[in-house]
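Two quick folds needed for the group meeting slides. Do the first one here.
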Amino acid sequence: MNYRSVVAKRFGGPEVLQVMENELRMPAAGEVRIRVLAASVCRPDITSRRGEGLYSGTRLGQKTPFVPGYSVIGDVDAIGDGVRDVAVGDRVAALTVVGGYSEYLYWKSDRLIHVPVSLNPSDAVPLILNYIVVFQVLHRAARVKPGEIVLIIGASGGIGTAALQLGQLAGLKMYGMASKGKHEVLKKYGAVPIDYRGEDFVKVMQELEPAGVDVVVDGMMRLEMIQKGLPLLNHGGRWVSFGEPESLSSLRHILGTALKTNLMPNGRHFKLYGTSFYFLGNRKPFLEDWASLFGLMETGKLKPVIAEKFALLEAARANELLESGQVIGNIVLAAQEYL
């Protein structure tokens, strides 16, 4: 029996993604086989597929051919020897980094996230990456408090709409940077929009909040913007950057800026956040926060913004849409029954 995956045969545009067949096998010891019900389509998928930024060449990045796909939700279809954490039929999620664009996924049983079966997988899959990032940036890195003033850089995509929703739930006073055509979604969640193309965001914020802002949520991680915007922080203000820097050189300069900012006696703090801590350190905070997000969704307090759903193997079309820059919210690949 075979299954299909979407493979990036080489670095390039969406056209390099091709559907390939693989032989279905039983999982190895300590491994499970997951029937994928939904997969997210996110910016790191694009960067790795292009071989750009930190993925430039192959020294630090993903070598081709490979299956993109940063996160999935699915059902455990088979288990290998020694697996005790999950059982066949369990609904689970995985933070994969690569491998998600596939009908089946093989994954270590101790790296799975239990997902309530009450949630529609194609609606919930943005929680596995975009929403966990924002939730932890707000509540663990920045430690926001109700009423604090927050500026969201990049407030309309998958990460941006997650920040708007979770910021509203946290009782924050929000400003958001987005192109003018996307301002309605910012207003919907109570944020004051700033047109990053037509306005100088520093001047706008200095006029609107002369005493400074408490938190900047920066999902773009661009050195020029960081250096320009840091003076907006008030005493005790926190700037949290995450995402993908343009290059290793840019990352080194950002790290230097963070060190310098944190040593200055003005009370400002610069932090970097990444999901790498899930793989390198204690996974308990992640599991606790995913459980919180699932609970918010189950009770109707949180509904991820879905721009469009594509069939599981239509990843090339989904990638093309994401790269168009016209997307508000998340793009999802889904099995037929969850489209």
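Then this one, please, same format:
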Amino acid sequence: MKILISGGAGFIGSNFVTRTIETKPHIKITVLDALTYAGSKKNLDPVNDKISFVQGDIRDAPLVEELVKDADLVVHFAAESHNDNSLKNPALFFETNVMGTLNIANSCVSHDVRLHHISTDEVFGDLPLDSLEAFNLETAYNPSSPYSASKAAGDHLVRAWVRSFGLRATISNCSNNYGPRQHWEKLIPNTIRSLLREGKAPVYGSGLNVRDWIHVDDHTDGVWLAVERGAIGSTYLFGARDRQTNLSIVNSIREILGLPESAIDFVADRPGHDLKYSVDPSYSETELGWSATHTSIIESLPSLVAWYHNALDPK
């Protein structure tokens, strides 16, 4: 089996590549990545001799066409994904997350290649902090940021191509991932770096915004089950029912590093900051036989802090 993994040098993509090689060594992997600031070939160092790597952009339709026609499966991770950056440059997010996805979908249709499209729970907007609800397959899309709006558009595009052009695709929407090799801009690595370098960590607003966390390997396992057992045109939600406030994550890291409460630096909230994400993965558990197997994020933080501490450039 030959698979093309777009965005395979990023955080989730590189973890997907390495776990796939560990669990499915017979598969031939090609990684397509533009190597923007959020992707690095170093993320693939452990498996460089086992994959083919192409530096390129999913917005390059001829390149995408050339690579897709030689694949049996495309797993599409490539995306601009940082909310703060989407507020500064929305156009880039729509060019990549919509038009890039259009190129992937069109090429998969042209060559009858199976596609799995990776998306986010952020397309559903947010929930009140005191809500007991969770996002499910009946939840209407209600994106809050240019990033989540662009991902929502990409999801709708894939569904329309399934119906209109016979695209053989599945979609998954996942909660916040944690694990090694995440870019320093994200909450956990940014908190670790800020505390180690400046002795303070920024927290938006009150810090009481709630996120639903899942280990990146549990996400990878879910994606493979969606590919192998999922029904064409179906969507699968992956979340570990592990909901934590941003402040609880930052405080836990602070305590691991032995720093005082004064190390928390409350800053002005960002525009459109979603209050709460909560994912109901019941359908994926029932239909795919999937379940999250890792410990809670709070229990995983000591090993994560150690990993990012070791990875931190001493400069």
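Slide caption for protein two: The two ends are 43 Å apart (CA to CA).
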